[in-house]
What we know:
Blueprint (H helix, E strand, L loop, with lengths): L6 H9 L4 H5 L5 H14 L3 H4 L4 H8 L15 H7 L7 H15 L6 H15 L12 E6 L4 E4 L6 E11 L4 E7 L4 H15 L5 E3 L7 E3 L7 E2 L1 H9 L3 E2 L11 H16 L9 H17 L9 H9 L15 E7 L5 E4 L2 E4 L8 E6 L3 E6 L2 E7 L9 E2 L16 H11 L1 H12 L8 H8 L7 H12 L7 H9 L32
Parallel strand pairs: 1-5, 5-8, 11-15
Antiparallel strand pairs: 1-3, 2-3, 3-4, 6-7, 9-12, 10-11, 12-13, 13-14
Amino acid sequence: MVRKIKAKLVLRLRVEGFSGRQIAAQGMSRHSVAAVIDAADSEGLSWDDVVDLDEQAVYVRLFPGRGEHVSVHAQPDWEQVHKELARVGVTLKLLHGEYVDDCRTAGTTAMGYDRFCKSYQQHVLVAGAASRVGHKAAQTIEVDWSGKTMTLDHPVTGTSTRVYLFVATLPFSRFSFVEPCLDMRQDTWLRAHVAMFEFFGGTTPRIVPDNLKTGVIAHPREGEIVLNDAYRELAAHYSAAVLPGRVKRPKDKASVEGTVGNIATAVIAKLRHQQFATLADLRAAIYERVAVFNAEAFQKRAGSRQSVFTSEERPLLRPLPAVPYEIASWVYGRRVQKNGHVVFDKNFYSVPYAHIGGSVDLRVTDTMVEVFAGDQRIASHLLAPPGVVNDYRTLDAHVPDGGRYEPWDATRVRQWATRIGPDTTTVVNRIFESVTIDEQALDAALAVLRLTRRYSGMRVEAAAGIALASVYSPRYAHLRPILESRQDQHDRTATPSAADTSGYVRGGNYYAGGAR
């Protein structure tokens, strides 16, 4: 073919004195050599005119328009094809089928699938864009811990605390998130994920972590992957699936691995001359540096991480759930006490009375305590504030007959005293009269009434009468000796006069020998 003629070589050999036959002996046909010579003579070109041109330019100069290919196929909108490929589930095969259907409708010639794919790759190269055959927008989030760490420096003690960096990346846009953490425990790992989803403003169907124990219990070569229960619950809350990368296969999450390296420069190195005393200050500085990092222009594609994320990926993210995921810990095998409460952190939380004596599990979040019997939640309470102990959280629905576990107050105490007798009621009333507020008398009044647990109500009533005869406002310390010495059961031969209430009056039988 004429296109294969080395026109510049022909002109050089000609000026060196070679004949047409000798030039053809260099591997070209005599007709092609003659065509070059005739075209040069027709255009008036000599070797000096083309000595500085390359081979292709010389050929175009001699044979303008020759060999140019004009496709007979209808050309699709490659920019639209590029945008459609960003959507989840969209492939070149699908788009080619739609393109063929459009060509049939318009009565134009459609290119085959192979040429369609090659033409798309050519468009990517010319436009300077990145091919989207490998990554789909809003489909995957890759997460990992950065190997490089930072520190908090205490200004007074001079001590340093290591800070670990949680890194997350959306592979399609390479939009990234960094969260500083004081440790790499499970609850910290989960909290970092919650902050990540809030930062991105949506979720994806896939989360690709490393095989760390806070997320993945086992990742065998064969068989199912065993995930941590809490990590699986978090993923389910955000309608995502955890698909860990293969062991010792960093390319399975190449985007975040590359981001970890970039973060070392964009964040750690940029902040190396600054000192931070609190985690909040460090977090604010890191967020600022990450914003700058996301806004930097790509080197090999148009736009930046921020622009691609905002315009193409964010609209495709799944919406966040109405309530953020709450980090929870489980406490198993707690027995329900006889008072219908279960104990957690020295505080008491009620459960339905039918579960008294049974075993329950507790799910504890930052704000709630949930009680489970098997897989059924039977109660939930607000968590007692830090530092509070011996606090009872009781729901009326958990109490049998609606009143057995009502809180003690002055009215309820007086009602109990009334059931014992009038003298006991007088003792209780005078105890309440001796204080400024009723709550100050509850303990003293209940101490008197609880004597009925050891002695009968009749004896306590009798002891109250004896005590009132000598003390205006008797207490537990007055009634208990009377009951222990059985004074309430002895026949009293003398009774104190109404005028003299200064003490007990001994009868004649008290003295030896009787009356004198």
